[in-house]
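Hi! If you just cloned this repository, the fastest way to understand the data is to look at a raw example. We've pasted two of them here, unedited. The first protein comes first, obviously.
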Amino acid sequence: MADRDRVIVVGGGPVGYTTAALLAQANIPFTLLEAGHRVADEPRAGTIHPPTLELVASIGAIDAFLDRGFRVENYRYFDRTQGLIANFDLSVLGDLTPYPFRLMLEQHKVCFIMQELLAQQSSPMDIRLDHEVTRVEQTDDGVRVVAATPQGEQVIDGRWVIGCDGGRSRVRKSMTVDFDGFTYPERFLILSTPYDFGPHGYAFTNYIADPEEWFALFKVPGPDGSGLWRVVSPVDPELPEDKVFADDAVQARIQRFRPLAAGYEIVHRNIYNVHQRVASSFRQGRVLIAGDAAHINNPLGGMGMNFGIHDAFNLVEKLAMVWRGDADDDLLDVYDRQRRTVAQEYLQRQTIENKNNIEQKDPKEREKFYDSLRATVADPEALVTYLRRVTMMEGFARAAAIT
């Protein structure tokens, strides 16, 4: 490819690699820059919702997703003291989507599938690991990205840059945009164990409400496909990380959730800060952002990675039209309006609501919420309406309607 005749994608996570795969299928030359030396496999996102499955089906990736993921045809909401509150049957969405289920598939495996798609493409591409972007500049007719590499500083020129480089995005910081929102005081701890919680009445996805120490419990395929359970819970922000990760503290926490005389084998431990933020614009000239670079949220509901993948499909479709000369670059402002509006109206609202509900401290409000869940499950029409919202189908349709 010519030195500048390309799109520069910054970030080699699921959104960055999805963006790269879409650009390749559109025959748009690109260079992908990733600060790390490999795809990171720490336990983070792992839920794929129906609209995302429809999108990956459109690019020929659905078989790989379904082969490697776990189908979740129902999920359960518990109260830690009362037990099961509601069981949500996703099959009721069968008339609305060919994929009426969640798929549990870790984000690094999404990256691997997109890498496999890239290997099938013949369009010009260039993937550079160990390239940490330090500066992004716009020129009169393009962009210039500066990256620190083991060989020293490198300058990469292109026509557009797409920042998929996470919540601390260097690309976003090169723009004059705000990243308003807030950070939760507590951190989230993820523990992964091969212990099988299924015989205790748990589905592959569960939310266990409690005013002091709630839990979320998920089963993901794990390294060999046999399954790992992730146990997510809030952590006192004052506790040092070494105390949070200490074996006795970890065992005490998971034993409080479900006692086990033999103790639990813990294969992963991860802790991170949690934020709710949306950038004030997803585009500034030839600089665009997607995924966590544009919006971040708490993980309850499994929406963040999905929303970023939706960004990638929306953006590349429009950028391809601009690249070919079939549309003016004002079309990219529609990407900003569509995705930013829905990030504010749906992604932020729903994930904040999810967290508020699972940790509700007022007993009357908690019972009121539980009653609403029971009533929703008992009413087929209300159940479909509710599931369209929490599976991201409603927000996806809303974005498409914005002009």
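Ok, and the second one:
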Amino acid sequence: MTNPSFDFTNSFRDAALVKKVIEEIRRTVTRPWVLMEICGGQTHSIVRHGLDQLLPPEIELVHGPGCPVCVTPLEQIDRALAIASRPEVIFTSYGDMLRVPGSGRDLFSVKASGGDVRVVYSPLDALKIARENPQKQVVFFAIGFETTAPPNCMAVRQAQALGLDNFSVLVSHVRVPPAIRAILGSPANRVQGFLLAGHVCSVMGYWEYPPLAQQYRVPMVVTGFEPLDLVNGILETVKRLEAGIVEVANGYSRLVTFEGNSSAQKMISDTFMECDRAWRGIGVIPQSGWCLRPEYDLFNAEKRFDVAAIAPRESPLCVAGQIMQGLKKPHDCPAFGRECAPEHPLGATMVSSEGACAAYYKYGR
């Protein structure tokens, strides 16, 4: 479905090509449509390059829940804070989790109070820390969508192979298809077409999406992250909406196949099992997460440190859940830029590098 006249290898940000596609969107659209880009990385690219402002007024883009930091449930943040505060623990995490607010503080506060909280760039870095510090319990905060699941699985399996009984993971993995089902099944849903996350589909393929598209009569297009990727994804979605065609198309064929990475999928299914998962600001979505299989309980930090019963307290002012369901925009929140800003956030969408509120704040919306 990719237009062969476009050189997607070298022309991702070619302004002339982007404008050409936008003009084709103008010629194609005849009525209003609401599209959702499911991924926070796509949201940042759209806002950074002003693509939403260049589109014809008939096209409204709303922002989905595809930011792993943003949807990590508050109770899981509070569990991380409780574990990280223990003197025998070295708590490791990606950097963008450190400023995400829990019920009362964040991981930076724990670190400032003397907790051993370290930023790592891979779960294998955490594994190395565990090998170098056998007298300490090393915990890795394993968050993310399908994209980050394979390396997290690899770390757990390596820890088992090495007999590292001082390594564990606090798992908060979520899956895109159940989230889309929850959005489309909501009585308040406005979304009529989806731009699917290319990096998720590079791992999982897009074989899970055609049944969803057919059930809810909504076209979906696998889309990349550069301006040309995004406007082409919008064009292909609009073409299908205007023609009444319901299908899932691949606009990111340079990286994505229908089947995906079968080796990565097998590793995931051998290490994780599906479970119900709470999404911050949204609530529990059935079978929307992954948790460790029982044979890996030794490496389950939630069980090792007995923190399952922690009860969170969310700010009543934060409307991030409605933003991530496409029901509101960040500037619709009365706290945006006032009570809630990057220096004093109420929710994760204001501090995550992929959060919609952070994008609107950073780029002056």
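That's it. A detail worth noticing about the second one: The longest helix spans residues 227-243.
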